[in-house]
């Protein structure tokens, strides 16, 4: 593999510089050796999972709660509730006022944050190791005792409405929201995270408390620690603070609907606005879920298609065949391939931005031609390049306790277990060009597509013409 060849070349280079002599390598006094860090998990009696990766030499830690509930767990009428709750989390509890909460975090020098996605809600804190117990106390207070005062709800309503206005100005966000809406139309996964503006204006305290009662239950929550917090210590804190959590979610209509497998629907949505100087287009086939055996093959295939940005200095040499065609013919300002996974489905595709409005159809044609090429003609060299890029991307993204905590929480909430970086690397290394072509034949060749397009898109051909490109013979 590429990494082994690199190690071999490095070893040969060191021997060469040493004049051919075998020079013993001595460990410096400041580099203590420790075995590979492992993720430990414990499940409490009520079903709450505690997961940690303990680093004995780390002086800081990240602790947080990952919850298997996001906008997908809402109804059409309550869409936006999960995100609304995230905003209210830091506005005071029955034990701490907002000012006390902010001062407590500030005095520790800690960081407290939260975010919402379609399937998850996350609350986490970063702090010195000695402050972890205090951070866990704050997290449990926020999750179990938030006051949700009417005055705070009204203040945050205006904040979220302004946030919604800002999101609507970000074309990439708009395109991907519309992509989900058309691919999973009339289904929970098709809704936006912020919710429609009329919902934001109308959400009540009752809906917020009902969301907590229905979704913040132990069987859907994972308390994660990464850094200098020992596993046993976090388990003790979890038992102290979270033992009273309800053990199971009530099987409401919204819950049952959120767990029903999403159906991918081939369709398109187009918002033509000639005042926008670019065409912004996303095209996707149904991808893979977190648990799919082809999850990493989908990522390698995505990396073969690659990314492109004309503004970068290395634009002519970004590696993939498609980027070479796009650059040579000035077809796009940028493009980004993506593989987005959910619990039971996913979206695999490409997002393109171009100001070459006369050649929008060429851009789409050559992109889909590259997709169909993957079904029959993939070289070992491009698979190795994609695998090296993917491994580097995954390993570099695990830099810091917050990134490690995010990886642990996301994997355990979505798949029930955490694959170690070493295990992931071995799985990626085993992928061959045959695997890529099998994946492409199964997921890409002659499959329905979802299209979302915004801006100056007059040159984008109709759906049936684009769909026909999915079974092109060379």
UniProtKB/TrEMBL annotation:
A Pfam family recorded for this sequence: Peptidase_M16
Peptidase M16 N-terminal domain span: 50-197
Catalytic activity, EC: 3.4.24.64
Classification via InterPro entries: Metalloenz_LuxS/M16, MPP/UQCRC_Complex, Pept_M16_N, Pept_M16_Zn_BS, Peptidase_M16_C
Cofactor: Zn(2+)
Full protein name: mitochondrial processing peptidase
Catalysed transformations (reactions): Release of N-terminal transit peptides from precursor proteins imported into the mitochondrion, typically with Arg in position P2
Record-stated family: Belongs to the peptidase M16 family.
Protein's organism: Triangularia setosa
Function: Catalytic subunit of the essential mitochondrial processing protease (MPP), which cleaves the mitochondrial sequence off newly imported precursors proteins. Preferentially, cleaves after an arginine at position P2.
Gene Ontology biological process terms from the UniProt entry: protein processing involved in protein targeting to mitochondrion
Keywords of the record: Hydrolase, Metal-binding, Metalloprotease, Mitochondrion, Protease, Transit peptide, Zinc
GO MF, any single term: metalloendopeptidase activity
GO terms for cellular component: mitochondrial matrix
Annotated localization: Mitochondrion
Xref: PANTHER family: GH01077P (PTHR11851:SF149), METALLOPROTEASE (PTHR11851)
PROSITE patterns named in the record: INSULINASE (PS00143)
Class of the enzyme per the UniProt entry, highest EC level: hydrolase
Domain Peptidase M16 C-terminal: 202-390
């Amino acid at each position: 593999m590429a990494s082994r060849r690199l190690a071999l070349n490095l070893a040969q280079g060191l021997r060469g510089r040493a004049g051919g002599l075998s020079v013993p390598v001595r460990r410096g006094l400041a580099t203590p050796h420790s075995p590979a860090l492992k993720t430990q998990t414990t499940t409490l009696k009520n079903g709450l999972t505690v997961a940690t990766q303990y680093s004995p030499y780390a002086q800081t830690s990240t602790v947080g709660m990952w919850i298997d509930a996001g906008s997908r767990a809402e109804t059409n009428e309550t869409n936006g509730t999960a995100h609304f709750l995230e905003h209210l989390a830091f506005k005071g509890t029955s034990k701490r006022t907002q000012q006390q909460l902010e001062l407590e975090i500030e005095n520790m020098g800690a960081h407290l944050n939260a975010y919402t996605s379609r399937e998850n809600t996350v609350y986490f804190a970063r702090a010195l190791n000695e402050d972890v117990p205090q951070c866990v106390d704050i997290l449990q207070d926020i999750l179990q005792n938030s006051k949700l005062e009417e005055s705070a709800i009204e203040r945050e309503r205006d904040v979220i409405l302004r946030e919604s206005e800002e999101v609507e100005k970000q074309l990439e966000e708009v395109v991907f929201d519309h992509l989900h809406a058309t691919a999973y139309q009339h289904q929970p996964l098709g809704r936006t995270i912020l919710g429609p503006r009329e919902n934001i204006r109308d959400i009540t305290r009752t809906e917020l408390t009902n969301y907590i009662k229905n979704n913040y239950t132990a069987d859907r929550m994972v308390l994660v620690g990464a850094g200098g917090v020992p596993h046993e210590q976090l388990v003790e804190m979890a038992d102290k603070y979270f033992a009273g959590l309800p053990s199971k979610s009530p099987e409401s209509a919204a819950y049952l609907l959120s767990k029903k497998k999403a159906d991918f629907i081939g369709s398109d949505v187009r918002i033509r606005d000639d005042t926008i100087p670019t065409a912004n287009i996303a095209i996707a086939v149904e991808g893979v879920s977190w648990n799919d055996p082809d999850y990493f093959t989908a990522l390698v295939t995505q990396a073969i298609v690659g990314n492109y940005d004309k503004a970068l200095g290395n634009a002519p040499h970004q590696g993939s065949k498609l980027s070479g065609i796009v650059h040579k013919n000035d077809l796009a300002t940028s493009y980004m391939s993506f593989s987005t996974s959910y619990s039971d489905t996913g979206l695999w595709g490409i997002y393109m931005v171009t100001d070459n409005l006369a050649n929008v159809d060429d851009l789409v044609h050559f992109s889909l031609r590259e997709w169909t090429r993957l079904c029959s003609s993939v070289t070992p060299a491009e698979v190795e390049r994609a695998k090296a890029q993917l491994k580097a991307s995954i390993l570099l993204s695990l830099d810091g306790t917050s990134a490690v905590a995010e990886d642990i929480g996301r994997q355990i909430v979505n798949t029930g277990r955490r694959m170690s970086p070493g295990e992931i690397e071995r799985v990626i290394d085993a992928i061959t060009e045959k695997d890529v072509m099998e994946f492409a034949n199964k997921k890409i060749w002659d499959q329905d597509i979802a299209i979302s397009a915004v801006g100056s898109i007059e040159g984008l051909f109709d759906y049936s013409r684009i769909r026909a490109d999915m079974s092109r013979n060379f």
